[in-house]
Design goal:
single chain, 322 residues, alpha+beta, Arc Repressor Mutant, subunit A, SH3 type barrels, 4 domains, four-stranded antiparallel beta sheet, 10 helices, 11 strands, 38% helix, elongated
Length: 322
């Protein structure tokens, strides 16, 4: 048992005890040596200012005049919780192009200090938490912070936006709604005032962002979900229909455990293949994901999406015709 768990357990025992608790019982309950029990009692009394009274012969308890009012101070988590928090913090620091590294550095230091205090000074091998970014895009830290601040402070935002599809540069004025992390990249969901509609912007294409002073326009969560999350992909829009994809029995072992969409419908077929149905609007992103499975995936419906997949495969094959 790590020290932090022992301190928690010791506090619970002394809080619940109506009579002094012997050192022998504390050894058994805490699963530690006699010397460790005394060290933990001293730490609880001298460092955490707990009202511990008693001695090794009669046993220990909390002073009844103060015990009911004493609580463990500060942030107290189990070692497993701290380890999980440290792993999650490493994930945030090492993904997204490191844009959050500076902001999260104090948190990492605090977590490491807590672990050091309650794990006997044992060094944690943080390098064993391995995070491999995949196809992440470079972010401008200044732009990212401006976007995040505008979203959370509910302020309007103006910025230069360079569309990836056309390379066109435009000046946009928006009311930020949500900051979305999708496939290891960040997107701003916002109300575009010039176009009078909801739009999603890739944060890595935003520059020269300026936060306004007046309150931003708020869009109801139901409207946001209907427009931005009802169809497949990040730039979804209202669904135009449902796509049915059938995966081979080999690929089924992976696809059956994957989350493609909140409204997806999946089932195993009698021959071991897997049928997946998802709502979609713009088919390009869905087609790209289906193509990822190569010959292990087949779009069955609708016919128009099936024909688009066929055309993409024919064009790809033509690249190898020479």
């Amino acid at each position: 048992m790590e020290r932090i768990e022992r301190i928690h357990a010791l506090h619970r025992i002394l809080t619940a005890a109506r009579y002094p608790v012997t050192v022998q019982r504390l050894q058994e309950d805490l699963e530690c040596s006699r010397a460790t029990v005394y060290r933990d009692l001293a730490y609880l009394r001298d460092y955490l200012m707990a009202p511990v009274v008693g001695n090794g012969e009669a046993g220990f308890r909390y002073d009844t005049s103060e015990g009911d009012r004493f609580e463990l101070p500060g942030l107290w988590l189990s070692s497993e919780e701290l380890h999980s928090l440290l792993a999650a913090q490493q994930l945030l620091m090492r993904s997204g192009g490191g844009v959050l590294s500076n902001a999260l550095a104090p948190l990492q230091q605090r977590i490491e200090k807590l672990l050091d205090e309650h794990a006997g000074g044992r060094r944690l091998p943080v390098e064993r938490v391995r995070v491999i970014p995949h196809r992440t895009r470079r972010l401008d830290e200044t732009a990212f912070r401006a976007v995040a601040t505008a979203v959370l402070d509910r302020k309007p935002l103006t910025f230069e936006y360079r569309a990836r599809s056309t390379d066109e540069r435009t000046r946009r004025s928006v009311s930020p709604q949500r900051l979305t992390h999708y496939r290891e990249n960040w997107y701003l969901d916002a109300w575009d005032h010039e176009r009078d509609a909801l739009r999603s912007f890739s944060v890595d294409r935003i520059s020269a962002a300026k936060i306004g002073d007046v309150p931003a326009r708020d869009v109801a969560d139901e409207e946001l979900d209907q427009h931005l999350a009802s169809s497949y992909g990040i730039f979804s829009g209202a669904p135009k229909g449902w796509a049915t994809i059938v995966f081979s029995a080999k690929a089924a072992r992976w696809v059956a455990d994957e989350h493609w969409h909140s409204q997806q419908q999946g089932r195993f077929l009698a021959d071991g293949r897997y049928e997946l149905k998802v709502p979609y609007s713009a088919g390009r992103e869905l087609l790209m994901d289906v193509m990822h499975y190569g010959s292990d995936a087949e779009i069955v419906e609708p016919v128009v999406l099936r024909e688009q997949a066929k055309s993409m495969l024919e064009l790809a094959l033509s690249n190898y015709g020479h």
